[in-house]
Amino acid sequence: MDHTQDVRERAYQIWIEEGRPEGREHEHWERASKELGVDSASAPQASTATDIGGGEKAATASAGPDGAAAAKPARRRAARPS
Fold it and tell me: Where is the composition biased (Basic residues) (predicted)?
């Protein structure tokens, strides 16, 4: 049985609980796999936390329709008094 989604969701929860640290996706995946009693060797190969940790929810929310990251909105300058 494939438990990838269960592990992904638990790894995401761990990531949130630990304050969303960068670069620890593999550690979170390992921990989630152990907690769920799943062989972590079946973990998908990913290059970023958003691929493993479930952060795709946040990444998708800020992505455009083509999946590309949305540009930051322009900063507005305060009006100068005359």
Answer: 73-82
Q: So what's the pLDDT on residue 2?
A: 85
The pLDDT confidence band at residue 7, using thresholds 50, 70 and 90, is very high
Cα angle vertex 10, ends 32, 56, to 5°?
120
Q: Structural domain tally of the chain?
A: 1
Domain that holds residue 25: 4-61
Judge whether 53 lies within some domain. yes
Range 59-69 average pLDDT: 47
The model's pTM is 0.51
